[in-house]
User: Fold this.
Amino acid sequence: MKTTVAAVCFHLLLSVICLVQVRKSLAPWEKKVGEATGRIAVATTERDTLARRTDDARKRLDAAVKALAAAQQGASAREKHIKELEAAIVKCK
Assistant:
């Protein structure tokens, strides 16, 4: 079967028309996909911000726990020293 240039052009034109129709039918979906992509980007940014804030809070908590332990150790040492001084005073009397 011999295909003419006109027949090829006709089939190409039909293909283009079909493609345009498909794109028109997909347009609402493309819009929805774009909106969803935007929401995902916002949620990802918020998640990253929360993760960073959580990490910062964890570091501050660790530092506070260490500072508390050091303060408790210092207080214990001072209490021991005070008791030793009080015992020395009692002996001197």
Q: What stands out?
A: The radius of gyration is 39 Å.
